[in-house]
Each structure stands twice: as structure tokens, then as C-alpha cells.
Write a structure and sequence with these properties.
The chain folds into 2 domains: about 100 residues, Gcn5-related N-acetyltransferase (GNAT) (Aminopeptidase); about 120 residues, no CATH class. Helix 3 crosses helix 4. About 35% of the residues are buried. About 25% of the residues lie in helices and about 30% in strands. It is α/β, with parallel strands linked by helices. The protein contains 7 helices and 12 strands. The strands form 2 sheets. Strands 1-2-3-4-5-12-6 form a 7-stranded mixed beta sheet, with helices on both faces. It has a 5-stranded mixed beta sheet with strand order 7-8-9-11-10.
Length: about 250
């Protein structure tokens, strides 16, 4: 298998694969200009035995205080069952961690896409839970410093026009001032920052500061909060009593 940048000659074959029923079930119809329609994402052609076999892409949040990346892909249905998806994700994740410095990586397959979920779990993604989405869902991201002052944090979420009756996800670096997103009607907050304490005695200090929200999935009123320990480290490059992880978030429509 080879992962390489998109080339002009890849268009026709990637469109053919994208339009197969097995791929369109999860990716919908190709957008106009595909595969060049998302310049903000890094897209790579998956090549097997000299032929185009699929596409894998990743997007990055580059703000140093809350770096994270997301991954997605599709494989030609004729090649399913050979472990190509797992291997492609493994290589991209390794690049994101080792070369690009990410410590939080997410992937969000549909809850019914069991084959994809199994492939991602083989690579090391852990299941967080199922997010049930209505037809309209909102994704909001805030800079770390914007969450320090509750009033400024609240003003940002007001501009996002959060509808409490619809699903919404907030990406916030640290699990703090949780009353603000809870009152705004956010459904789920995804955070990091704590590294789970990384090593003793910081594990005790982190739990003292963040309480139950130092790690894992917890509830603050109507707000679900998931805090990951991340794939990387802060300061000394080791862990003791904690583990690195890549988080898998499953989204399900209703």
C-alpha cells in the first residue's frame, strides 16, 4: 500500500469508488469538484498494486494550546476485508503523532458502520459513546483562553446560537467553567488538557483541580463532558499510572 498526495489522474477512479452504494451509504453523494472540494483538509490517495484503491483525509486544528486532528477515509468495496482501512489509518495516525505533534485524534463513524468501527479499534481508537444527532447538529470550537473568563465564554456561545433542542458538540481544550456550556444548551463537550495527570503525583493534583472531569465521560447537569488523556505527553515524555489514547466518537442519527 502507498499513501500519496492526490494527483490529477486520480479524479475519475476516486469518483467511481465514491459513487458505489457501499461508500455513498456513509459519505453521501460526491460534492461538486470532488476530490478537490475541501482544500482545508489534507487528502491522500490510497494506492494498492499500482491502482487507486481509495482516499484518506485528515484535518488539523493548529492552535498550539488545543491541537487535535480528525481522520476519515473510504476504500473500494472490491478491496474490503483485506485490512487496508486499518493500515491506512495506522499510517496517518502515526504521521499525525510523530511528525505533526498531535496528541488528540478523533474519528467519527456512523454507529451502524460496524466494519469501520472494528477497523478503527484495531488501530487503537477507544469508544467514547454514541452521540445521537437530529437532522441539524452544531459543532462549536473555542480557543483555550476564551474559556477562562465565564462572561467572555458565554458571549461566544451566544453568538453560536445554540439550540438546546438540537444536538451540539463543543470542542474546548480544558474542562473548566462547565456551567457556561451547560446553561447554553450544549449537548457534549470534548476536552483534553489534563493528560489524566500523566504521572504521580500530578494524577492527584489534576483530580484535585478538575475532580471527576479530569478524565473520562461524566455529566454536568444536562451537559455530557468527555476528557481524554490524549496520545502525547506534557513536559517529561513518559507516563506512570495513565495511558495514551486515541478517542473514537460514534455519531448516530435518530
Amino acid at each position: 500500500m502507498i499513501l500519496r498526495p492526490l494527483a490529477d489522474g486520480d479524479d475519475a477512479e476516486l469518483l467511481r469508488i465514491h459513487r458505489t452504494p457501499e461508500v455513498m451509504r456513509w459519505w453521501d453523494s460526491p460534492a461538486e469538484g470532488f476530490p478537490w472540494d475541501e482544500p482545508e483538509a489534507t487528502r491522500l490517495t490510497i494506492e494498492v498494486d499500482g491502482a487507486v484503491a481509495g482516499l484518506i483525509q485528515f484535518s488539523e486544528e493548529l492552535e498550539p494550546k488545543y491541537r487535535h486532528a480528525g481522520v476519515d477515509l473510504f476504500i473500494d468495496p472490491a478491496l474490503h476485508g483485506r485490512g487496508l482501512g486499518s493500515e491506512a489509518v495506522r499510517r496517518v495516525v502515526r504521521r499525525l503523532i510523530d511528525d505533526l505533534g498531535h496528541h488528540r485524534i478523533t474519528i467519527d463513524p456512523a454507529a451502524m458502520n460496524i466494519a469501520a468501527i472494528r477497523a478503527y479499534q484495531k488501530v487503537g481508537f477507544s469508544r467514547v459513546g454514541i452521540m445521537r444527532l437530529s437532522e441539524r447538529a452544531l459543532l462549536v470550537g473555542v480557543h483555550d483562553e476564551e474559556t477562562h473568563e465565564p462572561e467572555a465564554f458565554r458571549a461566544i456561545l451566544e453568538k453560536a446560537r445554540v439550540d438546546p433542542a438540537s444536538a451540539s458538540i463543543l470542542l474546548a481544550h480544558r474542562p473548566s467553567n462547565l456551567s457556561v456550556p451547560e446553561q447554553a444548551g450544549i449537548s457534549l463537550q470534548l476536552s483534553g488538557h489534563t493528560h489524566g495527570g500523566q504521572f504521580w503525583p500530578w494524577t492527584l493534583i489534576v483530580k484535585r483541580v478538575h475532580g471527576e472531569f479530569a478524565y473520562g465521560l461524566n455529566r454536568f447537569g444536562r451537559l455530557l463532558v468527555f476528557t481524554t488523556s490524549g496520545a502525547g505527553t506534557w513536559g517529561p515524555p513518559f507516563r506512570l499510572g495513565t495511558r495514551s489514547e486515541i478517542v473514537l466518537v460514534r455519531l448516530e442519527t435518530k
